[in-house]
Amino acid sequence: MGIVNVTPDSFSDGGEFLDPEAAVAHGLELVAEGADVLDIGGESTRPGAAEVGAEEEIRRVVPVIEGLMGAGCEAMISVDTSKAAVADKALGAGATMVNDVTALSDERMAAACVRGDASLVLMHMKGTPRTMQDNPSYDDVVDEVRRFLGGALEHAVREGVPEEMIWLDPGIGFGKTVEHNLELIDRLGELRELGRPIVLGASRKRFIGEITGREVGERLGGTLAANVIGAARGAEMLRVHDVREAREALDVAEAIAGTRDWREPAGLR
Ligand code: HH2
User: Fold this and answer.
1) How far apart (Å, rounded) are the C-alpha atoms in residues 119 and 43?
2) CATH code assigned to 2-257
3) For labelling alongside 217, which of 17, 147, 152, 254 has CA 20 to 30 A away?
4) Measuring from atom 15 of ligand 1, which residue has the nearest CA?
């Protein structure tokens, strides 16, 4: 899953793709590099980020989705939003997946997904982007995240979202210390007990900077390590800024593990 942030303030690429044409060109480049899904976001969720109204979010993401569709984009398009009004418009424009980092905090979101026949990513977050990094604490972070995601999954299914269209995400960096993030990635396999595929979003995140001492644009090496281990522990979708490098790292890791014949061309699998 390649990230296309159409925001002025995302933590690693804020302002780079605010112009719809630049965002569409970037998305197409990520697809050419091997992205199977593009995640289009119009609101930053970095710690302390300002909230954005639905109208503004729609104004940011819909032209990008329309532009990608118009360009014959072959990847699935996901909209990174927690607002049903935004999901509705994005699905109408051609998106087929909703990535909701608040796991259905908007009570109209499940219905929007059902109406739009959309896949749904449910992510764990402790608190809100404004408060989540204020001393987060857990007895057992993996246990708590698993229980939360299990409950969110049940709730979504009760609301009519087909279970087979739901993905789960531990929410790396969302109300977690470095140790919590490391433990979640190392024990990712335990989340697979919930029976749904796992999305992992570690790309360029702060815990990598804390370990390596690197600024946000210099965290590719650390990101690749997190992705390769995450995939080995069972993540089936990796949300990344640097698609080509993620794809290459996975290709080599899977060839070593024997889970993929390296002679086969890479692509949707
Ligand atoms: N992380 C971010 C945003 N959306 N969605 C899922 N499912 N999982 C994640 O880990 C995740 C996410 C934060 O990263 P980014 O989009 O690069 O930054 P920002 O929120 O500042 O736009």
Assistant:
1) 20
2) 3.20.20.20
3) 254
4) 10
Q: Which of 179, 170, 181, 176 is nearest to 235 (CA)?
A: 170
As a dihedral over the C-alpha atoms of residue 112, residue 117, residue 118, residue 119, rounded to 10 degrees, the angle is: 130
Q: How far apart are CA 40 and CA 238, in angstroms?
A: 15
Measuring CA to CA, how many Å separate 136 from each of 127, 147, 174, 179, 259? 9, 17, 9, 11, 37
**Cβ proximity of 98 and 119 under 8 Å:** yes
Mutational test site, ligand 1, from 5, 30, 37, 45, max ligand atoms within 8 Å of CB: 45
Using the CB atoms, write b or e for 80-114: b if 16+ within 10 Å. bbbbbbbbbbbbebbbbbbbbbbbbebeebbbbbb
CB atoms within 10 A of CB 48: 11
Q: So where are the chain's domains?
A: 2-257
Residue nearest atom 11 of ligand 1, based on CA coordinates: 201
pLDDT in tens, 159-200: 999 999 999 999 999 999 999 999 999 999 999 999 999 999
User: Hunting for tokens 């697979």 — which residue is that?
Assistant: 192
The size of the chain, in residues, is 269
Give pTM, 2 decimals.
0.96
251 near 260, Cβ under 8 Å? Answer: yes
